[in-house]
Amino acid sequence: MVKILIRKAAFYKEPLSQASGISNANQLHGKELSYNNIRDTDAALKLAAEFTEPAAVAVKHMNPCGVGIGETIFDAYEKAYEADKTSIFGGIVALNREVDAKTAQRLSEIFLEIIVAPSFSEPALAILTKKKNIRLLTVDFSNFAPSLEKVSVGFGLLVQDSDSLLENPETFTVVTEKKPTDAEMRALLIQWKIVKHVKSNAIVVGNDVQTLGIGAGQMNRIGSAQIALKQAGEKAKGAVLASDAFFPMDDTVLAAAEAGITAIIQPGGSIKDTDSIEMANKYGIAMVMTHVRHFKH
Question: What are the BP-aspect GO terms (predicted)?
């Protein structure tokens, strides 16, 4: 018999804040949100808010497991679902456009804890509220703003600025003989947005419309890369790879080359950057350095 530890929790809101986010969400349906629900939804919202185009983000345990963008929110969700059909089960999905009936029908086909979006059409609500326990939330996506990150430590509170730097791709540097194509650069910029929301060590494999593999929270970078590349499988061929921090050795670049990755984006800054650049040149991989490390903990 397993004993479930029940811990008391409370949710406090900054009283004067009108910014977009989980604190100002409206719950339309479903059970009360748990501590973990709130944290996971917060993580999903912050990533979904990175995109101006229709985007869908699936999150499990504070990490994205699938991200998709598309011409419509239905297309975006389809891509997020296809990115990892296994991990999305029991997850949280954030969408940055109104949920219509077509999208709601697809969302209703699997077990999800929470769906959060700017709004739901009446037909969409009619479909989704047939599920008694699913939580449906609306959040205004027009006013996301940086906020201080606060984490409790033993009898103390650790506070830092949020990772909200607006990066300019014109400051990025191509460090390899091969330059990324326009399509590869689009994919690199999309995956770079995503990887900063993955717990370090973080590696994301993807293309210009979806993630294909995500390696999160491993104690070494090659371990995260192996997870992401294995998940991507054959789809890694012709895809790109993003790393939230520099490569301490060239083993990740070698693994990427063997999987068929054609372009890599990473901060740079390692004393062994030259080794990684030479490995990329050896296999004809384009490498872009951003000069900014994310390193989410």
Answer: 'de novo' IMP biosynthetic process
Rounded Cα distance between 63 and 130, Å, is 28
In a domain, 255, yes or no: yes
Is 253 part of a structural domain of the chain?
yes
Distances (CA, A) of 72 to 4, 51, 78, 100, 265: 41, 13, 10, 10, 27
Mean pLDDT by 10 residues, the chain (297 residues): 79 84 94 94 96 97 97 98 97 98 98 98 98 96 86 92 86 97 98 95 97 96 97 98 96 98 97 97 98 81
Domain of residue 63 covers 22-138
Number of structural domains in the chain: 2
64 with 46: CB under 8 angstroms? no
Listed in sequence order, the DSSP H helices in the chain are: 35-48, 73-83, 101-107, 122-128, 182-195, 221-232, 251-259, 273-282
Tokens of 164: 């909200």
Confirm if 92 and 113 have CB atoms less than 8 A apart. Answer: yes
For residue 112, the cross-strand partners are 91
DSSP letter at 56 equals E
How far, in Å, CA of 225 to CA of 28, rounded?
39
Q: How many residues does the chain have?
A: 297
Residue that is last in its domain, among 138, 153, 183: 138
Distance CA 68, CA 48 (A): 10
Choosing from 98, 118, 138, the residue where a domain stops is 138
- Residue type for 48, please? A
Instruction: Give the Cα separation of 89 and 60 in Å (integer).
Output: 9
CATH code, domain carrying 218:
3.40.140.20
Q: Tell me the C-alpha distance between 5 and 148, whole Å.
A: 30
Cβ-proximal residues to 85 (8 Å cutoff; 6+ apart), any chain: none
